[in-house]
Amino acid sequence: EDKVVQSPLSLVVHEGDTVTLNCSYEVTNFRSLLWYKQEKKAPTFLFMLTSSGIEKKSGRLSSILDKKELFSILNITATQTGDSAIYLCAALNAGGTSYGKLTFGQGTILTVHP
Amino acid sequence: DTGVSQNPRHKITKRGQNVTFRCDPISEHNRLYWYRQTLGQGPEFLTYFQNEAQLEKSRLLSDRFSAERPKGSFSTLEIQRTEQGDSAMYLCASSFRGSGNTIYFGEGSWLTVV
Q1: Which stretches of chain A score pLDDT less than 50?
Q2: Residues B44-65: tens digit of each pLDDT
Q3: Alpha carbon distance B108, B92 (integer Å)
Q4: Where are the beta strands (DSSP E) in chain A?
Q5: Which of A52, A71, A87, B10 has the CA that lies 20 to 30 A from A28?
Q6: Is B108–A45 a contact, with Cβ atoms under 8 angstroms apart?
Q7: How far apart are CA A76 and CA A79, in angstroms?
Q8: Any idea what DSSP says for residue B38?
């Protein structure tokens, strides 16, 4: 059965800190790893990573995928209170009728204090 | 607004009643997904359509749940004889094969069974 595990489950930091969120996966027919941010509503898309070792950046957020070790990290530098949210990673399946199906981790709850 | 649209956004129902949620995907997206999310958990896959064909249904989905996408556009998710354990947020998402499979979520429909 496909499985995605995130760590830590929760994290409390102060503004300006840098955080690293972890995501490991065991998915048959793996295609891509996606990161989402969720703030009391539906998840909003952050990154999709398909190739190993290529960093993707968007402002203070960056992410990278290691397909050999089956994990991804999401880094947030100079955190702000607006970064407080649940961060979800999800593995995208590319096999047969499961093509396009996402398997989510349980999420990391990030709280940034002023 | 050209995003994924879901309604109703909130539904409170008595145990044993039937409820139906509707999802309108992003225009021209041929794939549509339903997920369920409970507090403290990542979204859990329920079912998936490509055009009007339902390609996969989670083993965790009981016979009380049924989903349709009759014309390959909007979709409905019906829950019959609701139970308190059905209380959750029901998320709809859509994607277009060939766009890198980025999956976009709607705002979700909150169900509370009392």
Answers
A1: none
A2: 999 989 899 998 888 878 899 9
A3: 7
A4: 3-7, 10-14, 19-26, 30-38, 44-49, 56-58, 61-66, 71-76, 85-93, 102-104, 108-113
A5: A87
A6: no
A7: 6
A8: -
For residue A66, what are the β-bridge partners? A71
Phi and psi dihedrals of B86, rounded to 5?
-80, -10
Residues of chain B with Cβ-Cβ distance to A36 below 8 Å are 105
Of B4, B41, B55, the CB nearest to A97: B55
- Closest by Cβ to A42, choosing from B48, B50, B108: B108
pLDDT at B4: 93
Chain A residues with beta carbon closer than 8 angstroms to that of B36: none
Do residues A13 and A79 touch, judged by C-beta distance below 8 A? yes
Residue A54: partners with Cβ closer than 8 Å, 6 or more residues away: A64, A65
Which residue in the block uniquely carries the two structure tokens 């209380």?
Answer: B87
**Burial profile B88-106: b = 16 or more Cβ within 10 angstroms, e = fewer:** bbbbbbbbbeeeebebbbb
- Give Cβ neighbours of residue A4 (< 8 Å, ≥ 6 apart): A23, A24, A25, A26, A27, A89, A90, A91, A103, A104, A105, B42
Distance CA B82, CA B76 (A): 16
